[in-house]
Amino acid sequence: MRSRARRLAAAAIAAGLLPLALGIVRFGPTLSLSLALAAPRTATWLPAAAGEPAREEVLVDGGSRPIHADLYRPARPRGGLVLVHGLSQAGHRHPEMVRLARLLARHGRMVLVPEIPGLAAYTLGGREVEEIRSAIRHAAALVRPVGVVGFSFGAGPALLATAEEPSVSLVASFGGYADLEHVVAFVTTGVHGLGDRRHVQRQEEYNRWKLLALLVGFTENLRDRGLLGAVARRKLANPADDTRALEGDLGREGRAVLALVRNRSPEAVPALLAALPPRARRALDDLSPLRVVPRLPGRLLIAHGEGDPSIPFTESLRLAQAAGGRARVAILETFHHTGPRPLWRSVPARVADAARLVGLVDGLLASR
Q1: Coil/strand/helix, residue 69
Q2: Is the confidence at residue 116, as pLDDT, over 90?
Q3: Tell me, what's the pLDDT at 124?
Q4: Whole-angstrom Cα distance, residue 221 to residue 183?
Q5: How large is the C-alpha radius of gyration of the chain?
Q6: Which of 147, 70, 155, 164 is nearest to 109 (CA)?
Q7: Residue-level pLDDT at 10
Q8: d(Cα 274, Cα 328) in Å, to the nearest integer?
């Protein structure tokens, strides 16, 4: 009788531990990666679920020119991800991009990180969409399913590139935008909103000169383009630099672009946008992904830091609204554009954001 009781007790314990074991198998990698993202130092002692990945430099066929990329390949990849960097001179070798790619590869994803020259040079010309599309096809030829993750200003072209790619099973926008005209208004005035909600946020002056750099390539007058480019380079190197001599030589198009960049009045934005060179107005529309959101394939993840000073979080809410309820959305209260805000932020908000981060990571690692 005692032997039978012991067997029954053992069976009961095993039955009780089974859900826990399944939970560890199911969520262990998610929790491990979430912890590594939130606390980078932990990555040195957390186990690599898929082993240490190898990184190799590859060339992606980009049509008119090859695209340089880094490929992070685990021994046995379970799906792939294409990561698209934002405006950064470091491009695909930005330390945070390298760290994220390695972490994802350590958890079984083959990760391709292409260098997008326009984004590395603070410009958007439209070629970025086709370059990202080429990277997606390169990754899909190596492993499936494939997901695409765009960050900051790289998220817009990434969303546009995925709209007609049936091989994509996941699309993610982290700190991205829906409509560039709204971003322009925010960068110049600090005002943003959605529906009846209006927000005002202190703006960083440096972002004005990033905006100028983005608009330079769309200025049709070559002389004005050269002068604006010189102003942008000097202001990005030192926002306090006196560029009035250069600005005084600008023609009509150049003055229209600079007037928008220097503007601080929300009421003036529509007229200033309308005064831009026709090519610039078309580019702002063409590079805004809002119109393609209903056609995006696969699952959709959207995340944004509430304190983002470069792109307002309402842009991500606008993307989610266009997705018609099929997107997983996380607005992170304790994050700004590039990561967590200072530790003095409220403990409840940090706990809530930790749960949101786990949900996002689980979505990234899901192979379905």
Answers
A1: strand
A2: yes
A3: 78
A4: 24
A5: 23
A6: 147
A7: 46
A8: 35
